Amino acid sequence: MYSEWASLQATIENESNYKSVLHSYSSGVGRDVAVSVVRQLAGRLSINASAKHEPLPSNLENEKQIEWTMEVICFGLSLPLIEHEAIRDCVNIYVEWLTALTVPKPTVPPSIVNDPNPYVQKIFQHFVNLFKPRERGDSNKQIVLCHRVLRTVQTIAKQSGKFTRQTWEVLLQFLLAVNDTILSPPSEAGSLSEQLCDRLLSVLFELWLLACTRCFPSPSLWRTFREYCVAWRHHTALIEQWNRVNRVLTSHLLKILYGPHFPEIRISEEDAQIISTEMDDACIAQTWFRFLHILSNPVDLCKPKVVSKTPMFHNAAFSGDAVIEPHQHPCLSALPKNFLLAMKGIASLSNAFIGEPEKNLAVETNPNNKTPPQSVKHSKMNYSTSVYREKPSKSVTPSPLLTPTPEGLNMIQLLQMEKRSQCNSILHLFGAWLFEGAVSGCKLHTVSSGEGSVGGSKPRRVHFAVSSSQSPHAFEGRFPKERHSIAIMDSHRMNGRRIAQASEMRKISEVSPNDITAILAPYRRHDISESPNNYEAGRAEACGALCRIFCNHNQGENILPVYLSRFYLALTQGLKIDETVSGLVLSSILFNSQDLFRIDLKGVSVVLPHFISALEMVLSEKELKFKSGVSQQQLRQASIHHLLSMLCIPHHFNTLSVIDLMTGKPMMTSGVFGENERVVTFRSLKLRIVNLMIGALQCELDPDNTQMLLGAIHLCILDASLCEDIEQKEELKRKEESHRELGSTILEEVMENHQSESSSSKVMTHQRSSSEPIVDLTPLTSGRSPVGPHLDTAWSIFVRCTHLVCQRLMSAWSSEYNVALAALELLSGLAKINVSIVQDQLECKRAVRWICEHIVHLCSRPSQYHSRDLHSIIVAAFQCLTVWIVNHEYLLKDKECLHCVLEVIELGISGSKSRPKGCVPPVYKHEKELKPASMRVKDAAEAVLACLLNHVGSFPSPIGPSSVVSLLDEEAILKLVKEQELATGDVVFRYYVLENNTLLAILEQPVIEEKDPLPTATILLRGLMGRHAWVMQTRHWPKSEKEAAQERLKYPARPQPMDNVGTHHEIPSRNFPEMVDKIQLTDADRSIPTMASIETDTSHAEHEKLKMLLEKQIEYETFVLSSAEAELANVGFPNPRTEAKPPRPKQEFSPARLLLSHLGFLTLGTLKEPANSSVPPSLVMLDSTLPGFDTDLELLDSIPCRTFDTAFIFYVKSGQRTPTEILNNVLSNATVSPQFLEFLNNLGWPVDIATHAGWSGHVSTSWKMDPDVTRANIDLDAFMDHGGSLYNGQHQVLYHADCTSEMAFVVPSKRVQQMDRRHSVELSEQPSSKCSLSPYGSKSLPLYQSPHQRPSTLDLPSETSGPAQVSPSLDKKRKLSTRAGMIGGSQMKVLVVWLECLADGEMFPLSDLLAETSTGLEYLQGNSSSSLRSPRSNDQVAVIFIQPLKSGLYRIQLHGCAANTNPLVDGMVVSRRSLGTLVRQTCVNICNRKRLECDMHFPPHVKRRQKIQEMVSKYRKRLTSPQFYTQLFMN
Prior knowledge:
- By secondary structure, the chain is α+β, with helices and mostly antiparallel strands.
- α8 (about 165-185) packs antiparallel against α9 (about 190-215).
- The relative contact order is 0.06.
C-alpha cells in the first residue's frame, strides 16, 4: 500500500531531535544547571501558586532566552529518577506552556503565546526523553508523569484549533517515538511497557483518528505507523486497540454504505466518542481501510519467528544471560491470545458487513476456563461476535409471528440488509487473513496423479497459506463459472442434473497436485510446531467467521471458485478426526456452518464425508472427548442441524461418486481385511448417516435436540420407503423388458437351430456365451431382514428406530411432555408409511403392544404424579393407538393383540383392568367401580373403542373418505317411501335414546317394496361416531338365498296311502297276561263288596234307569261311528276338514317392538329409573312433536365426527412484499414453478365444493352439497392455466382425510374476495327457526340416477355417480345451518408459504394476509373480520416456509408454534417426493397439539354425546313401564 513512499522511521529514531546541548557536558554539570534553572522557573508557575502568592509572569522575554531554557528543560527531562523533583518541574513547565494553543496561562512567555506552534513542536520532541526507561529509581513516579503528559497532550490536541500540519506531524511522530521506545523491546515483568502500554496506544490511536479529521497524515506517516505496529504485535493492548478502532470506524462506514437502518455494531458511549463528528464520509472510508491494514497480516501473530524478527528481540537474545532463540522469549506466550483477539476482531467486522444482528453472547474460548458460557462476563472490549454465534434453538416457547423477522431487526432494517455486501466483496477484504488463519499450522497432504485414494503412498506435506497481498482473482481462470440447474421432474432429467452437479464438484476440485503446488509456492511458509494447539482458539475464530460469511451469502450470488476451493480445504482440515484433531476448530465449524448444506453452495457435497466423520465424534458419544468452546447441548444441536440437512442427500445423488478435493478424482474407501477399494458414492454414505442418527438419539439428553432427531427419523424412513417403491417399480419394469428381450432372443435362436438341423440333420447344442448378461428370472421379494448387510433399507430403519423410540418412551421420555408427544407423533407417522415387508406384522404387533404398555405405565403412576401434561400424553398415546389399528387392521385378527388393545381401552374407560394379573380372578363389569385417570383419558379411550368398532376394516366408506357417516336423513327416506307408494297411513319416525348416548330413529315402514312380507324397520342411528342408516329385517334364512317367502312357507304334502299293505292278521289284544286268570283271590281282593250285595230297591230302580241311558248312548255312538266310517269311505284320503294346514303368513308386524326386544331393551330393568341418580333409564322414548325437536336434531347432525383443520398455501416470488402481488401469483401457472403445482397435488386430492361431503375449509360450504350445482355446471375454463387459484375454496379445494381427521388446503387468490364478503354476510345471519332435517345442511343421498330407475338396495353410490337428489324443502341458498359443534374446531392459523428466496420470508406480510385465511370459525366466536388481522396470541399462528434449492431439495423454515411440532423441523432439508406428505402431517400435528393444549376442546364424540343428553332432558317422555308398553303396543 505504501511501497512507493519513504518511511520516517529513521527520522523519528534520530536522537539529535531529543538531545540538548547540555548532553555534551558531563552529567554533573548538566544536572546542576538544569536543577537550578528549573527550580526557579517552577516557582513562578500556576501549579505552585497559592491563595497568598499569585503566579508570576514569565521573565523570558525573547526567543533566545526561551530556546536556551528549553535546552535546559530538555536535559532535565532525561535526568535520573533520583532527581524526581527536577523532572516534575520540567513537566510542569512544559504542560503550562502547552496551554498557549488553547487558553494561555499567565506564566507562558509572550513569544510562545504569539507563535506557539514552533515551540510546541520542540516540546513534543523533548517529551520523548521523559519516556525513556531508567535503570534506577522509583518507576512509579515516572509513570505518573508520563500519564500526565499523555493526558495533557491529548487534551490540547482535541481542544486546540491552532495546530498546523507540521505540528500534527511532529505530534504523531512524538507518539510513535514514545510508543516505540516502550513497546518495541520484549516485555518484562514490572517494566514501563506493562504499565503504560494501554494508555500509550489509546492516545496514539485516538489522536491519529483526530489527525485524520483535521490534517490527514501523509502516506509516509501511515507507512511508519504500520511498520511500528508490526514491531509491537507482541503486546495484547495493540490488538485490542486495533479492534476497538476498527469497530468504531466500521460502524460509521456501514451507515455510509447501507444507510442508517442497517444493523449496527454495539459500541460503548466511550468508544463512540473517539470519532469526531467533523470526519466526512471519504475520510472515514480512507481511515477505515488504512487502520484495517495497520497490523499488516494479522495471521503472523501465530508465527513467533515472524513476530520476533525485530532488532529489539535480537538484541534481547544476544544480551540476555540465557542463550535462547528470539522466538522463544517468554513475552511471546501472549501471541495465542493476540491471535485470538485479532481473529475475533476480523470476525466481528465480517459479521457487521453480513448484517448479522449482534447478541450479548461472549463465549470464552479459553479451554482452561471452566465457567459456563452463560456466566462469562463481558470484557472491556465486548466484541459479542465470538466463534460461537447464538442460534435460535427449537424450544417450547413459540417464536413471534406477527412480525416474523430476526431478533432486533425491523422491516426497514431488513430492506436495508438486502443491500448488504456480497460474499465475494467481504472475502476480498478479509478472505486472505481468514483463509490463512483457518489453516494455520495445518499440513495439507497431496497425492500423486496416479493415486486414486487419499490413503495411498506416503504423502508429501504442502503448507496452505494465503498471502494478504495475493489478489483474490489470481486463480479465477482455473475455475469456470457454472450455474446450478433447476430440478426437473422426470427421472432422466434428474439424472442429467445430478451429473451436472457432479461435474461442478469436479470443477471445484479439479486442481491437480501440481496446480496446488504452483498455487502455494509463492506463499510464505511458517512453522508453529512448537505449540500449535495454543493457536486453536484463533484458528477456530477464523473458521467460524468463514462459515458465517459463506452461510450468509446472498441467494443467487456466484461465489468465486477460488474462494470456494479454499473454504472447502479449510473445512476438511478443521474437521480432521485423526491424532491432530482440534476440538475448538471442529466445534466452531459445526456451530457456525449449520446452514452449509441448505444454501445452494456450489460443490459443497465434496465435504459431506468429512462432516459425517465429525458428527460421529459429537453425536455418537454422551460426553465430548475433545475441548469445545461451546456447551455440549449447543454443539449437539448444531450437529443435529447438519444431520437434518444431509438426510436426503444419499438418495438424491444416489450413485454419483464423491469427489476428493485434493485429487479431483472419485474418493475411494481404503481396503479393510483384504477387501478391494471401492468408490465412495453418496448412496454408500446412507448407512453411516442412519447409524449416526440412531446413535445420536441413544445418547441425547436434551429435550429440544431429541425432538429434532425424532423428526429426522420420520423423514429418513419416509424418504427411504418412497425411494424403494420407485426402485422396485423400475426394477420390475426392467425385468419385464428383459424377459421380453430374452424371450425374443431365445425364439430367434430356436428358429435358427431348427433351420440348421433340418438342413444338416445334425443335432447341435446351443450354449450361451459367457459374455452375455445373465438375467435374473426370480421374482422380486420385498422382504429384507433387518439384520445383515441391508441395514439402510426402510424396513431396517423402521425396526431399529421403532425399538429404540418405544424403549425410550417407556423409560426416559415418559415424563418429558414435548418429547413424549413428539415420539407418539413419530409412531403415528410410521404407522402410515407403507413399508410392506414380510416381517411387518410381527414388528407392528410389537409396536402396538409397546404403545399399550406405555399407556398402562402412565395410568399406573401414583396419584401425586398425575397432571394435565401426563393425561395429555395418555390422550396422545390413545390417538397413536387409533392410527395403528386403523392402518394395520390385520393386527386385530391376532387374538393376543386384540386382547391387549381391548384391555388398555378398558383401563382407560374404567381405570382398572378386569384381570390385572393372570392368577387373579377377573372382576366383572357390573362389579367394577369406574375410576378413570381423568375424563379426558376416558374420552380418548372411548374414541379408540368407537373407531375400532366403526372404522377398522370399513374405511373409507362407499362414498369415499370425505364422509364417514350416512348421507340419508328422515326427509330423504320419507320422500322415497311416498314416491314408491308404500305408505299405508301416517308415516312417522319413532325416536328412542339407548344408554343415554345413542339416538335411534325407527320407521316401521319398508323403504323398498319387497315380495316377502317380513318385519322391516328402517332406522337412523345417531351415535357418538355419526349418523348411520340401516334397514333391519327379521329373517329366518340368509338374504343371499333368493327363494321367496311363499316357497319357504308352503305346506309340505302328506304322503299318499299305499293300497298294497300286505296280509292283515286279526290278533286279539289283552290288557293283562293269561296267567292273571290263574291267580287265586285273596281277602284283600274281596274287601270291595259286589253291587248285588249292597243294592236296595230304591237303588235298583235308579240302576236300571242308568243302564237304559248307557244302552241308548252305546247305540247312538255306534250309529255315529258307522255313519262316519261310511262318510270317510266315500270322501277319500286325506280329509280336507281334518287335514292340518299352516297358518297364512302375517302381514302386519311391530318392527320397533321386535327390534328393541331383540336388542334387550324391553325388560323391566331397562325401563326402571336408577335409584338416587339423574341418569335416565337405558331406554327412553322421545316426543318428536315438541317444538324445537327438528332444530336440535339438525344441530346434532351438524356436529362433525372428525376433527377438521385448514392450511393456507401462498406463493411468494423473489422480492415480493405486498399481499396483492402474492395473491396474484397463483392466477397463472406462468408465475409459479412446476414444482409448486406438483407439491399441491401431493398435499391432497382436489374436490368440488358443490359435491363435496366433507370439510371444505370454510363452515359455510362444508358438509353440504348444492342440489343445483354439478361438476358440469362449474365453469373451469378460466382455471385451465391456473397456478393454484382453482383451489381457492370457491370451486375446489385440496382435501385429505382419514377416519379421525379432515384437512383442507386452500390457495387464496384475489378471485375469492367477493365470496369472502358473502361468507361474512351469511355467517352473520341467524339460522332459520325451522330447519330441515337434511344430513349436513342441504345435502342428501344420491339415491338413483333417473326417476324411472328404482334402486333395489340402499347401497351408497360414489361421489362421481351423478347429481344428488335432495329434499324439495331445502333452501338452495347455502347457509351455515348451525353454530353448535363448530367452535370446537382448531383455532390455529396454519400457513404454508412457498418462497423463491428465503430472505423474503423475513418480510412476509403475515398480518395483511391473515385476512385471507378466514374459515368462518371467527364469526362463530363473535369476532369481527378485523380480528383476522391481529390474532390474539402468536401461538395461534404457524407458518411453514418452503424454499426450493437448486439441488432439487427443499429447505424448511418454521415460525410460531410450528417450530415445536414434528415431523418437519426448522432447517430440515427434504426431498421432492416426501415434501407433500411431511407438510400435511406437520399441519395435522400442529392442530392436534393445539387441541391437546386447549382446555375448552372436547373430542367430537363427546360433543355429540352431550347434545344427545341435552335432547333427552328436553324431549323425554316420562312414562311408567305400563304406559310405555301400552304406547309401544298401541302404536
